[in-house]
Design brief:
The chain is α+β, with helices and mostly antiparallel strands and 217 residues long. It has 2 domains: 2-107, no CATH class; 130-216, no CATH class. It is 63% helix and 8% strand. Strands 1-2-4-3 form a 4-stranded antiparallel β-sheet. It is elongated. The chain starts with a helix and ends with a helix.
Length: 217
């Protein structure tokens, strides 16, 4: 998150130790109308709230108004904000969440690519040239990994709802998948790669293998 914020150059408001943006600033960045942003808020309010969109009232709003009064931000109509009794703010994570949802903005599309590039670069730096996670240098890894996580959740939900066994069923049926694909069980795969107890097998797999596991699940 910090790396993305440093690289995209979005101008926000320093409020309570973090960068936040108003609807008008978000609209200006994506070159959309405030009304379009309102439509996304209406359609995806719960998701955006979970990722940091918040409506301020009372004392928090008063504090923000003091900050806004000192800013030179032409896209903000401080006169109208001064009279409002509530005001929505986007924390940086909510701003990125919105970028993932917007379809009619070229800047949103470019931002999505920048996020992916930065994420891949951060992974490369973290792997430090090691071979255990060299798969994560594949530019398709992130997309396949997120997709596999979603299918994995559907798979485990199906086991929970439809298979009358204890918690051991998750390991048992995961091994069935690994035996079918790799001709060995998950524990053997961990031994071959010398994975530690807290290492996740899926984080060592290439995108094509993740796609295959997703299809099985």
């Amino acid at each position: 998150m910090d790396e993305i914020q440093r690289n995209i150059g979005v101008t926000g408001i320093e409020y309570r130790g973090e960068t936040v943006l108003l609807k008008e600033q978000v609209a200006a960045f994506f070159e959309l109308t405030p009304r379009t942003i309102e439509n996304y808020l209406s359609n995806f309010e719960e998701e955006l709230r979970q990722n940091g969109y918040e409506i301020l009232r009372g004392k928090p709003l008063s504090e923000l108004k003091l900050v806004l009064g000192e800013l030179d931000a032409p896209e903000i109509n401080f006169g109208s904000i001064k009279r409002t009794s509530q005001l929505g703010i986007f924390r940086f994570r909510a701003f990125l969440n919105l970028a993932m949802l917007i379809t009619e903005s070229e800047k949103a599309r470019v931002l999505r690519q920048v996020i992916l590039d930065i994420a891949i670069d951060a992974i490369n730096q973290r792997t430090g040239g090691g071979t255990k996670y060299i798969n994560q240098r594949d530019e398709d890894f992130i997309v396949s990994y997120f997709k596999e996580v979603d299918y994995r959740r559907q798979f485990t939900d199906a086991l929970k709802d439809c298979v009358a066994m204890g918690k051991a069923k998750y390991a048992i049926y995961t091994d069935k998948i690994y035996r079918s694909i790799f001709r060995e069980n998950a524990q053997e795969y961990r031994r071959v790669l010398r994975l530690h107890k807290n290492d996740r097998v899926r984080e060592t797999l290439y995108s094509e293998v993740l796609d295959l596991i997703s299809a099985y699940e």
